[in-house]
């Protein structure tokens, strides 16, 4: 269920990294792993 609140309790998790570059890198790696585990034998960007 989506909520419009911005607090951490409603979101269920805090910020990913200490700074924006670490957050961006972590989200990129998570997205990469999500795509690659579904599609086998393809390039980095399907």
Ordered list of secondary-structure elements with their pairings:
Elements lengths: L7 H4 L8 H19 L8
Protein described:
The protein has helices at residues 8-11, 20-38. It has 46 residues and is mainly α. The radius of gyration is 14 Å and the shape is elongated. Helices cover 50% and strands 0% of the residues. The protein has 2 helices and no strands. The model has no long low-confidence stretch (mean pLDDT 69).
Tally of DSSP β-strands = 0
Q: Helix count, per DSSP? A: 2
Tell me what portion of residues adopts beta-strand conformation.
under 5%
Helix content: 40-55%
The ordered H/E elements are HH
Largest sheet: none
Query: What's the end-to-end separation, in Å?
Result: 30 Å
* Poorly predicted residue ranges: none
Shape: elongated
Q: Mean pLDDT, nearest integer?
A: 69
Radius of gyration: 14 Å
The secondary-structure class comes to mainly alpha
């Amino acid at each position: 269920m989506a909520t419009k609140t911005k607090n951490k309790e409603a979101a269920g998790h805090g910020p990913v990294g200490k700074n924006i570059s670490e957050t961006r890198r972590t989200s990129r790696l998570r997205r990469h792993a999500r795509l690659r585990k579904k599609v086998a034998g393809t390039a980095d960007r399907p």
